[in-house]
Every structure is written in structure tokens, then in C-alpha cells.
Amino acid sequence: MKLLDLEIEALKLPLAERAQLAEVLLGSLDALSEDEHRQEWTEEALRRDADLDADPTRGRPADEVFRGARARLR
Asked: Domain ranges in the chain?
């Protein structure tokens, strides 16, 4: 089964079951080693960079992003 198929099926679950699944999945991330975490974040950064290269209109100026982050921290 492909990841997209799993996502579609998981989203059909009732809220409580989705929350339970999310908890289990997030908990499994704690089992990763430092190198595995680094690899995962590198892959995510590369994916995001490729997404932005493919569609630059999806990006936002850094000052706008930081302004929004600061506002949420207040």
C-alpha cells in the first residue's frame, strides 16, 4: 500500500481513532536515532525545496513568516 492510500484511509477514521493513530505514529519517531532524525529532516528540507522550485508562488517572504510566528508566540 502506498503512503497516499494510507493517508486517505486514515482520514476516514473517526476523530478519536485518528488521534490515537497520530499518537502512536508520533511516539514511533522518538525511537529514531540522531542520524535517522537528521536523515528525515534532510529529506523533508529537500522535499520542501523541490516543492518551492516547482511552484515559487507557494513561498512567502521571510519577514512575513517571522512576523506571523512572533504574533502567535505573544
From this structure: 1-31, 33-74
